[in-house]
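Consider the following input, taken from an annotated entry for phosphoglycerate mutase (2,3-diphosphoglycerate-dependent) (Ruminococcoides intestinihominis).
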Amino acid sequence: MKSYYIHFICHGNIDETHKGKYIGTTNVPLSDKGKMELKKLDHNMKYPGATALFTSPLKRCKETCEILYPNMKPIVIDQLSECNFGEWEGKTADELKDDELFKQWIGGSSEVKPPHGESSADFTRRICHMFEDIVTGLMKTGTTDAIIVTHGGVIMTLLAIYGLPQAKPFDWVMDGGYGYSIRITPMLWQRDKVSEVFQKIPLPKEDGEE
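Applying the prediction step yields:
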């Protein structure tokens, strides 16, 4: 029975002025430094190829696709967006530390929503439904390999839910431009909805590889 391969790549870095702020659906572009870092990674290392390319609709992901996969037309999926932090977008934890709702949210309450945003439970449901739809589509069409360019929070959450070995979301943390490859075996997927995380990407180039 054939296996299906999905390669998750986190978008490149955004401007340092956003560091420490909640940047979810805020549509910021890659920074100039982030673009240069991606181009350097692409030159020095090896990103996987695939038949299908999916991306979040946000600029930082679309621009990452343009740099790493300039000859592929990505399929834009709204549900691949990062968590919507609502009125907390662009603010730091320190700025929000006296907000009672924020205290509940940061304390791990999965149903608490930022004002005009989404709870972590809503976020998880959204991206899980999307991911399962992608896997179903790949299997129905016989497409055995795909790339998903999205956000760190999306990738970490999906790997924590569907990935083997089992690990918590922050065990899957990655830098911009990096990610993980998973292998899906239809029988195991249909029985347990799990996949094997088998490598971190991009890969080192082999000797003599340009």
